[in-house]
Amino acid sequence: MYRIPKRLEPRRIALKRIIALWRTVAGNDLRLLWFAIRHENRPGWLLPALAVLGLFAVEPLNFAVPVLGTIDEFVLLPLLLHGIATMLPAHVVDGFARVSDKRLRRRA
Predict the structure, then answer these.
(1) Is the dihedral of CA 89, 92, 93, 95 positive or negative?
(2) Would residue 79 count as lying in a domain?
(3) Which of 27, 38, 72, 94 could cross-link to 76 by cystine, CB 3.0-4.6 Å?
């Protein structure tokens, strides 16, 4: 069995924390945006904005310069996702809140 050297252990813990934070923060925004895409009264700018964000996530610079790719995947992408989610109209966000509340009641 392979063991991680002790000098790399703090980096591994930090990376786990960053991934957990990313899942927590961006996970809610991703669920909201998925709901907004399927909403009948979604704003017209939503699909092009998400398409540009998707292209930004897989751009070739991520592969050419791995450090910049890591920074934008873990920092910039969640910030942009959250920015798009906060610009959604109130009726879409309210609809998402109602649907997610119903799901939570069903699980309990």
Answers:
(1) positive
(2) yes
(3) 72
Number of domains in the chain: 1
Structural domain containing residue 93:
44-108
Q: pLDDT band at residue 53, thresholds of 50, 70 and 90?
A: confident
What pLDDT does residue 83 have?
92
Asked if residue 24 belongs to a domain, the reply is no
Q: What is the pTM of this model?
A: 0.69
Q: Do the domain assignments include residue 62?
A: yes
Report residue 45 as tokens. 């700018």
- The CA distance from 19 to 77, in Å, is 13
Answer for the pair 43, 89: CB distance below 8 angstroms, yes or no. yes
The sign of the CA dihedral 76, 81, 82, 83 is positive
Q: Is the dihedral of CA 45, 89, 87, 17 positive or negative?
A: negative
